[in-house]
Structures are given as C-alpha cells and as structure tokens.
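[job 4471] stage=fold_predict status=RUNNING
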Amino acid sequence: MQTAKDLLKSKTKEVWSISPKKTVFDALKLMADKEIGAIIVMDDDAPVGKEKVVGIITERDYARKVILKGKASNKLMVSEIMTPMEKLYVVKPETSVEDCMVLMTGKRVRHIPVFDGAKFVGLISIGDVVKSTISSKDMLIEHLSNYIGGTY
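[job 4471] inference complete, writing structure tokens
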C-alpha cells in the first residue's frame, strides 16, 4: 500500500513557497513560472530554518476571492486570500494514498500538505494521487491477466 511519503519520494524535492506579505500577482507569477497550482505560504518573520507554514494559496483561491469579486491581484496581499493553516486539511507521511484520495474528494480540495508532527515535509496534489492510483490498478490488472492467462 502506497503512502503520502511514497508520493513525495517520486516528486521533485523542491516545494515552492511565498511570503504572506507578497502580492497575489507575485504568487500567480510563481505558479505560472513553475507550472503549479498551489504554493505554500511561509511565515517570513521566523528565523532561517525555523520557517513555519501559515497557509496555502491556490488557483482556486485566486478565482474565487479575486477575479469573481472584481479585485486586483497586484494590490492584494497573499495573506488576504490564502487559506490559513487552521482551515487546511493535512495528512501524515504514513497516510495511505487511498485515504488521501478520500479526503481530497470528500473535502473537494486539490492539494494537501504533508506534516510529520509539526514539521512540513511536502505537498501532494490530486494529480499525484490519481497517477499513483492508476499505476497501482494497472499493475494489478497486469498480474491478474498473467494469472488468468497462465503465464505464472
């Protein structure tokens, strides 16, 4: 059974973050440059190495809290539209991929931060979860086909 930790191993080690004091435009530019749909918001007042997650900003936050309300992304701060830490759904590294899928679909979120205790260890997306699930199902189908076909 695959876990959130396994998903993180297969991804690049780089997790992009932004300060809550940056503009929403800066966050959108970073998302576009890195071809990602969400950025972790880190407290930039903390000492180096002790940064803490204060929230997440996603394309959905932008669409619902900026565009639909007729606001300008170059005037709003990330802190004004981010989803704060206390409202985030999070998982542990040992959480199964299936449980991640249930949480994401049940709560209708596309990105889930992974925390080992209080330490942020990575971010998984619905795409990561779906890709892993499809791969596992494909492998099972192949094994069953080989069993039925007598190639074992």
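[job 4471] summary: The mean pLDDT is 87.
[job 4471] exit 0
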